[in-house]
Design goal:
431 residues, binds flavin-adenine dinucleotide, FAD/NAD(P)-binding domain, 35% helix, 19 strands, alpha/beta
C-alpha cells in the first residue's frame, strides 16, 4: 500500500489540506478534475479565525499584499438607506482577535495557497482526472479515476486507473463524488445531508472602483438588507476593485419568471448584462423597492454572474465527516449558504485541524492509526461546522425579512448593532 494521502479536489479546501498535511510531514497526491488550476467567482471575506491559520502557514504576508483590510462593517436598510449598525474592523479586530479581517479575490487566495504547495513540494498534482469510485478498505483506500476528455466521441471509454492510498480526503466541493459514494448510501445516516437548491440566486460582479462615481466607491464592508434581498459590497485587491454580491429570494426573481433558467443549475456561470439582457429584469425588478444609492449601484454595474445557492441540513454527527480511512472537508462535508461568509473559512479551519490531528499534537499518547486520526478530526470539526451551517440558514431568514420581522431586525441592529455583528464564538476560534 502507498503511504500517500490522496486529496480529491484542488479548490481552496484541497490546497489548504495539502499545506496542513505537508507541514505534518505527510506525503500527498492531489487529483483534480479540471484541466487548469484556478478559481472562478469573485471575492471572499476572511475573518480572524481564518487569517490566523493562514499566518501559521506562512502565507499571511503575501495575502496582505493582495488583500484589503476594511475599516468597518456597515449595515444599512436597503429601502430606507439608513445606517442601522456599524462594527469597527481594521485595528480594532487585530487588537481584539490578534489577526485581521481581510477581503480578497478568491483567485488570489487560491494562487497563494498553490504557490505554497509548489514552493514546499507538498504534493504531486494530477489534473484532468476525475475520481468516480472509492473503496474504503481496512488496509487501504482504493480509488478509480477517469481521465477527463477521454471516452468522448467515437473513442471507447478507457479503463479507469485504480490506485491505493493510506487515506483519502474528499475536498471535492458541494457536489462531492466521495460523499455520494461513501457517505450517502445509508440514508438513515446521511440522507438528511443531501444538497438542494435553496431557491436563492447570487448575482456577483467585480468593477474597478475608479470607474465608479465617487459616491458609489467603498472602503468598508457594506450590507444592504431589504425584503427578499440583500446586497453585500466590499473592496478587494488593495481596494482597487469593488466586489458586489446581490442575493435574491425566489419571490424576487420569480417576479421576472422568464428570466430564471428552467434548469436552475444551468445558471452556473450565467452572465447577464444590465443594459442588453432580458434576464437583467431580475435585478431591474427590485430597483423600485430600494433607496437611491442601491439603485445607483445596481445601475452602475453592467455585468453580473449568476450563481444558484445550494444548501443542506446541518451536520448531526462526526460520522458524516469521517469513515474508516476517508474524511470529508470543506463544502464536500458541510455545504452552506454564504450568509455568514464562512464557507471557505470552514474549509481552511477543517484543513488546519486535519494537520493538527496528523501532527499528533492532540493524540500523541496513541499509536499511529489513520482511522483514529480521521475520527479525531471529525470529532473536533462537525459541531462547529454544523453551528456555522445553522447560523447561515438563520441569517437567510433574517437578512431577507419582511414586515414585522424586518422592523424587529432593524430595531435590534440600531440598539445592539456591534454586539450582534461581532461574533467571538466564530472569530475567536481556537483549534
Ligand atoms: C456567492 C458566494 C459568496 C461566498 N462568500 C464567501 C466568503 O465571503 N467567505 C467564505 O469563507 N466563503 C464564501 N463562500 C463559500 C466558498 O466559496 C466555498 O465554501 C469554498 O470555496 C469551498 O471550497 P472547497 O475547496 O471546499 O470546494 P470547491 O471550491 O468547490 O473545490 C472543489 C474542487 O474539487 C474538484 N472536484 C470536484 N469533483 C471532483 C472529482 N470527482 N474528482 C476530482 N476533482 C473533483 C473541483 O473541480 C474543484 O476544484 C461564498 C460562496 C458563494 C456562492
Amino acid at each position: 500500500m502507498s503511504n500517500k494521502i490522496l486529496i480529491v479536489g484542488a479548490g481552496i479546501g484541497g490546497l489548504s489540506a495539502t499545506i496542513a498535511l505537508g507541514l505534518a510531514n505527510k506525503s500527498v497526491s492531489i487529483i483534480e478534475q479540471s484541466s487548469q488550476l484556478g478559481e472562478v467567482g469573485a471575492g471572499v471575506q476572511l475573518g480572524p479565525n481564518v487569517t490566523k491559520i493562514l499566518k501559521r502557514w506562512g502565507v499571511d504576508q503575501a495575502l496582505e499584499a493582495y488583500a484589503f483590510e476594511p475599516n468597518c462593517l456597515e449595515v444599512y436598510g436597503a429601502k430606507s438607506g439608513k445606517l442601522l449598525a456599524n462594527l469597527p474592523l481594521g485595528q480594532s479586530f487585530r487588537t481584539r482577535y490578534g489577526s485581521p479581517y481581510l477581503t480578497v479575490h478568491r483567485a488570489d487566495l487560491h494562487a497563494l495557497l498553490l504557490s505554497s504547495v509548489k514552493k514546499h513540494g507538498y504534493a504531486d498534482i494530477h489534473l484532468n482526472q476525475r475520481v468516480h469510485d472509492v473503496q474504503n478498505g481496512p488496509d487501504a483506500v482504493q480509488v478509480k479515476v477517469q481521465s477527463q476528455g477521454q471516452g468522448q466521441g467515437v473513442d471507447p471509454v478507457p479503463s479507469p486507473i485504480i490506485e491505493d492510498y493510506e487515506a483519502l480526503i474528499g475536498a471535492d466541493g458541494v457536489w462531492s463524488r466521495v460523499r455520494d459514494v461513501l457517505f450517502t448510501s445509508n440514508p438513515a445516516q446521511f440522507g438528511s445531508n443531501a444538497v438542494s437548491f435553496s431557491g436563492d440566486l447570487a448575482y456577483r460582479s467585480l468593477v474597478l472602483q475608479k470607474l465608479l462615481p465617487p459616491h458609489l466607491r467603498t472602503f468598508a464592508v457594506k450590507v444592504w438588507l431589504g425584503p427578499d434581498m440583500h446586497l453585500v459590497q466590499y473592496p478587494i485587491r488593495r481596494g482597487e476593485w469593488l466586489n458586489s454580491v446581490l442575493i435574491l429570494s425566489p419571490s424576487q426573481h420569480l417576479r421576472a419568471r422568464d428570466a430564471v433558467p428552467k434548469d436552475v443549475l444551468s445558471a452556473l456561470d450565467w452572465t447577464i448584462n444590465m443594459s442588453q439582457d432580458q434576464k437583467a429584469l431580475n435585478i431591474q425588478s427590485i430597483l423600485h423597492q430600494t433607496c437611491p444609492i442601491v439603485q445607483d449601484t445596481l445601475r452602475a454595474i453592467e455585468t453580473w454572474n449568476v450563481w444558484p445557492l445550494m444548501k443542506s441540513e446541518p451536520l448531526s454527527s462526526s460520522s458524516q465527516m469521517a469513515k474508516g480511512r476517508v474524511g470529508l472537508l470543506g463544502d464536500a462535508a458541510h455545504p452552506m449558504l454564504p450568509y455568514l461568509a464562512q464557507g471557505a473559512g470552514m474549509a481552511i479551519e477543517d484543513a488546519f485541524e486535519l494537520g493538527e490531528q496528523f501532527n499528533g499534537k492532540t493524540n500523541s499518547a496513541r499509536p499511529y492509526c489513520v482511522q483514529n486520526i480521521l475520527a479525531g478530526y471529525a470529532a473536533k470539526r462537525w459541531a462547529r461546522s454544523a453551528e456555522v451551517q445553522k447560523r447561515a440558514l438563520l441569517n437567510a431568514d433574517i437578512f431577507h425579512a419582511n414586515h414585522a420581522l424586518a422592523w424587529a431586525r432593524d430595531r435590534s441592529l440600531q440598539l445592539f448593532g456591534p454586539k450582534l455583528l461581532d461574533m467571538p464564538w466564530l472569530y475567536g476560534y481556537q483549534s
